[in-house]
């Protein structure tokens, strides 16, 4: 059984939802220019995808 609810939610989220969350994080976590940097936002979305991937032996 998979117990990481955040990873499960990210795996089920649409790309649009992940991009919106990434923009929110970029704008609110970093007070520099990263919030407006699309490469930085894409790296956050990529991190969501890596975090959401089931680990060996786990299934959603």
TrEMBL record:
Protein's name in the database: Uncharacterized protein
Organism listed in the record: Paracoccus mangrovi
């Amino acid at each position: 059984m998979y117990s990481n609810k955040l990873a499960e939610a990210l795996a089920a989220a649409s790309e649009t939802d992940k991009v919106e969350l990434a923009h929110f994080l970029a704008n609110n976590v970093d007070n520099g220019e990263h919030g407006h940097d699309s490469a930085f936002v894409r790296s956050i979305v990529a991190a969501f995808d890596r975090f959401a991937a089931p680990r060996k032996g786990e299934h959603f």
